[in-house]
Amino acid sequence: MTSLDTAALAALIDHTLLKPEATAEDVTALLREAEALGTYSVCVSPSMLPVRTTVKVATVCGFPSGQHASSIKAAEAADSVSKGADEIDMVLNVGLARAGDVSGVEAEIRAVREAAPAPVVLKVIIESAALDDAQIVAVCEAAERAGADFVKTSTGFHPAGGATEHAVQLMRRTVGDRLGVKASGGIRTREAAEAMVAAGASRLGLSSSRAILEGGTGSGY
């Protein structure tokens, strides 16, 4: 595996703070750290918007369970875009995916896509650890049909776990070079981050970005 230099790795990171106890002061610290590290973006909860930063701004919708009505997810996405979000990471309804209701999965992704049209970047969190391989392939294909820009492994909050190299490889094979693949959840070392990139990830969701970039061990998301 070829090692990425620090700047190149930082440029793939969505520097993330989604803890429910986070304060406005915590978010401000995140913004300044992202700017200092040169990460691609910050990812914060929608209630924290708007924010002022020189990096891209991502947020989440239907987070973390995905068990929200499609109309609520769409409204949340539209509200976040109106407050300056450049990117939306939506949690799909994992129950629909596990039940094989691919048309339902596609319909809710399409609803959010219509509420947050391009150039807003739409990432679909599939919660890969809770799905089998066939389900992962099916929801990635549905995300592509519905107009998503990325598929993303995990919220980082599901008890089944976070990103794995296997899931990232499978997602990349499914979407080819047509969509991005974001690995998130449980990535706590530089070695793990670089392994996800080698597996096919084009974006990383990290909360301990500084520690990981400096070769230490992070915690959290």
From TrEMBL:
This is Deoxyribose-phosphate aldolase. One of its GO terms (biological process) is carbohydrate catabolic process. The gene is deoC. It catalyses: 2-deoxy-D-ribose 5-phosphate = D-glyceraldehyde 3-phosphate + acetaldehyde. Catalyzes a reversible aldol reaction between acetaldehyde and D-glyceraldehyde 3-phosphate to generate 2-deoxy-D-ribose 5-phosphate. Its EC number is 4.1.2.4. It is an enzyme of class 4 (lyase). Keywords: Cytoplasm, Lyase, Schiff base. One of its GO terms (cellular component) is cytoplasm. GO terms for molecular function: deoxyribose-phosphate aldolase activity. Belongs to the DeoC/FbaB aldolase family. DeoC type 1 subfamily. PANTHER family: DEOXYRIBOSE-PHOSPHATE ALDOLASE. Pathway: Carbohydrate degradation; 2-deoxy-D-ribose 1-phosphate degradation; D-glyceraldehyde 3-phosphate and acetaldehyde from 2-deoxy-alpha-D-ribose 1-phosphate: step 2/2. SUPFAM superfamilies: Aldolase (SSF51569). InterPro entries: Aldolase_TIM, DeoC, DeoC/FbaB/LacD_aldolase, DeoC_typeI. HAMAP family: DeoC_type1. It is found in: Cytoplasm. It holds the Pfam family DeoC. It comes from Brachybacterium faecium (strain ATCC 43885 / DSM 4810 / JCM 11609 / LMG 19847 / NBRC 14762 / NCIMB 9860 / 6-10). The active site is at 89 (proton donor/acceptor), 152 (schiff-base intermediate with acetaldehyde), 182 (proton donor/acceptor).
